[in-house]
């Protein structure tokens, strides 16, 4: 039996995760967690966490890289594998951590207003981060008019 390399598994993970259905379906993760925690629906919390873990491999690789959410995943992969300098975008990601934690704590305390505002702010920060990441990734491509591809997102 042939051994599958770690690199092959990593490539397969990212290729499948780049399906826009994977990315868009993950956008409901935080709202579902906040709702589940606030309403003490622990099965929903566990199911949401399990979904978040298995989601990246649930979908087949996309046919192309035209979808914005596919480009988000390609940009994230590029950032993680190339140790790319993302400048101010790193701050968006950093600020998002306490905001997300506050949303979860507020939900646990059943502070509906605080949980709602923090969840909305967290999602706004996340979308601003990934939108900037896509712009940065596309700027780093060898030819500005070339669309992102699987190969440009992989480690050199």
Give your account of this protein's structure.
The chain is mostly helical and 156 residues long. It has one domain (6-153). Helix content is 71%, strand content 0%. The chain is built from eight helices and no strands. The protein has helices at residues 6-17, 20-26, 29-38, 42-54, 68-82, 89-108, 112-140, 150-153. Helix 2 (20-26) packs across helix 5 (68-82) and helix 3 (29-38) packs antiparallel against helix 7. The protein is globular and about 50 Å long. InterPro entries: DUF6653 (IPR046595). Pfam families: DUF6653. Keywords: Membrane, Transmembrane, Transmembrane helix.
The gist of it:
The protein is mostly helical and 156 residues long. α3 packs antiparallel against α7, α5 crosses α7 and α6 runs antiparallel to α7. It is built from eight helices and no strands.
């Amino acid at each position: 039996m042939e051994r599958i390399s770690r690199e092959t598994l990593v490539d397969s993970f990212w290729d499948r995760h780049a399906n826009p259905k994977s990315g868009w379906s993950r956008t409901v993760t935080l709202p579902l967690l906040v709702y589940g925690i606030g309403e003490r629906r622990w099965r929903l919390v566990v199911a949401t966490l399990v979904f978040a873990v298995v989601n990246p491999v649930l979908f087949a690789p996309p046919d192309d890289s035209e979808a914005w959410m596919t480009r988000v995943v390609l940009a994230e992969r590029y950032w993680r594998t190339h140790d790319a300098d993302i400048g101010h975008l790193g701050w968006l990601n950093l600020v998002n951590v306490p905001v997300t934690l506050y949303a979860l704590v507020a939900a646990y305390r059943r502070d509906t207003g605080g949980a709602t505002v923090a969840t909305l702010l967290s999602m706004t920060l996340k979308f601003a981060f990934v939108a900037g990441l896509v712009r940065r990734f596309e700027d780093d491509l060898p030819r500005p008019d070339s669309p992102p591809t699987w190969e440009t997102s992989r480690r050199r």
